[in-house]
Write a structure and sequence with these properties.
About 35% of the residues lie in helices and about 15% in strands. The chain is an alpha/beta fold. The chain has one domain: Rossmann fold, CATH 3.40.50.720. Helix 2 packs across helix 3 and helix 3 (about 75-95) runs parallel beside helix 4. The protein is globular and about 55 Å long. It starts with a strand and ends with a helix.
Length: about 270
């Protein structure tokens, strides 16, 4: 099986690709000119916003893992252009040149309504107002209507393998005035590989699936694990299910995380 991976140089892609190679997959990394892929991975020079370049990129592949996304910018036009138009272009290339391909799209738990009355469920009606989750939802819908064999994976807070994501939390909780009792669904990079390997078998075809570990963890605990401090509070938590996903579907489809909690990751020095 030959897999094309976008976002290969990002925090997720750079950690996923070596694991896919170790698992025996032939991997191609869609990269712009001058970028170097991880060891054991071949680079395919292309740009998601250049439809002509994508025809060569998808040639001969049996699966596409689409990780590339833009979100850490105030430029909402760039977010929409990259996340929706780029995905649409890649889907069009796949339909034209490799219509039997399996297309796996990475998405986000941020799609769910902050005021949900229970953990976010894949079948919930959603209408995100921020550009990043809104653009990801639009990309999901394009894929679902594409006629390709597809799977959408909505990830919780991704961390581990020295990616620095958790270490940013003390700053983020201050900027966004997060409540210390708020719990987040989490997923370690190791289990991005776990679930991608499962999805490549076809076990998740035709599904939007929430992907997270066994233990949503409080912001207060996470800040402490990141080496920071946070003022405690006993004030009521207004939206207790915000950032918390229901992962029942993933478990029923066979996904079992290897890193079950962030505390396990800390104990086993996987942070």
């Amino acid at each position: 099986m030959t897999i094309l991976v976008t976002g290969a140089s990002g925090l997720v892609g750079a950690r996923l690709l070596p694991r896919l190679v170790d698992a025996g997959f032939a991997c191609l990394a869609l990269m712009r000119e001058g970028k170097t892929p991880p060891a054991g991975v071949s680079a395919v020079e292309a740009d998601l916003l250049d439809p002509i370049s994508l025809a060569k990129a998808v040639e001969g592949v049996s699966a596409i893992i689409h990780l590339a996304a833009v979100f850490r910018t105030p430029d909402t036009d760039l977010i929409w252009k990259s996340n929706l138009e780029g995905t649409r272009n890649l889907i069009a290339a796949a339909r034209a040149h490799v219509p039997e391909v399996r297309f796996i799209l990475a998405s986000t738990s941020n799609i769910y309504d902050a005021s949900t009355a229970r953990p976010g469920l894949e079948t919930d009606a959603v209408d995100p107002q921020q550009a990043y989750p809104a653009s990801k939802l639009a990309a999901e819908n394009v894929l679902r209507e594409s006629g390709l064999t597809w799977c959408v994976q909505r990830f919780g807070f991704i961390y581990g393998d020295g990616d620095g994501h958790l270490e940013e939390l003390p700053r983020l909780v201050t900027n966004f005035k997060m409540h210390p009792a708020q719990r987040m669904s989490m997923v370690h990079h190791r289990d991005i590989a776990t679930v991608m390997t499962l999805a490549l078998t076809g076990a998740m075809d035709g599904h939007v699936v929430n992907i997270a570990d066994e233990a949503p963890t409080s912001i207060y605990e996470l800040v402490g694990l990141a080496g920071g401090t946070m003022e405690p509070s006993s004030e009521p938590l207004i939206n207790p299910w915000h950032l918390h996903m229901d992962v029942s579907l993933a478990r029923s489809l066979g996904f079992q995380p290897v890193v079950r909690t962030v505390h396990q990751a800390a104990r086993e020095m996987l942070m």
